[in-house]
Design a protein that fits this description.
Protein name: Transposase
Radius of gyration: 17 Å
Helix content: 55-70%
Number of helices: 4
Strand content: under 5%
Distance between the termini: 40 Å
GO molecular function: metal ion binding
Keywords: Metal-binding
Order of helices and strands: HHHH
Largest sheet: none
InterPro entries: HARBI1_dom
Cofactor: a divalent metal cation
Amino acid sequence: MHDYLAAYHSNSYTPKKKSKNRKLTELEKEYNKALAKESIIIEPINSKLKILKILSCKYRNCPIRYSLIVNLLSAIYNCDLGIGIATS
């Protein structure tokens, strides 16, 4: 599963898991803690966006259009929070 995820999306990270015969090292535990600190920020946002049916169900249309929809919904959510779009 981990290799599939890495091949599917290069920016995806998964926590390290212990096996039956091996415990996690301190470095792996620190990695998991750092990953959890980052994911706790985004999880409430994901849950609020998944209220919308288009994001909570399987999308069977053009992937480019789905990307556009996700970007638009994210922009609307950011606008609702008062986070503007950065202009240079």
